[in-house]
Amino acid sequence: MPEMVFEYILKNNGIDPAADLEIDQSIDFGSTAAAFTGDASAAFTVEFEPSATALEKEGAGYVVASLGVDSGYVPYTSYSAKTSFLNENPQVIQSFTTALQKGMDYVQSHTPEEIAQVIAPQFPETDLDTLTTIVTRYYEQDTWKDNLVFEQDSFELLQDILESAGELSERVDYEQLVATEFAKSAVK
Q1: Minimal CA–CA distance to 153: which of 71, 65, 48, 66?
Q2: Are residues 136 and 188 in the same domain?
């Protein structure tokens, strides 16, 4: 997905990923930061956190752009359930969604420093200063929506990206695939 988003952004800016640059797809995603620092000919790398911030702190690179900012809101995380499960267990789905919304509410109402403190136990390999830098960057980029509603614009963007990458042969109707009533109820 990161590469599809990256190529989508390049294409939207008049750059043909196949003709205008060389993308090395042979590197395991977890090893791209190390490969970037070890290859003098590499000009750019696409990194998730904490690798991007680690490269900056080491003086080995700079974060020059955010795929999330440049692509628009791409729903990287969504949850799927069979229609039968939704119909038979609406209270389970609502409870799950409401719990996730409480997390989104927390992010909206607390500082990056407070958020970093809370999430630190989940990232024992990353120091608090780095976590705070990452959360601050996400905060400033408006990475986190204030609700969990999977908007139609985001759904269409996701299909545009998949189609552009040659991974989607047929588009699907938003109303046919996305149920938003649980997320809308959780916001109330």
Answers
A1: 71
A2: yes
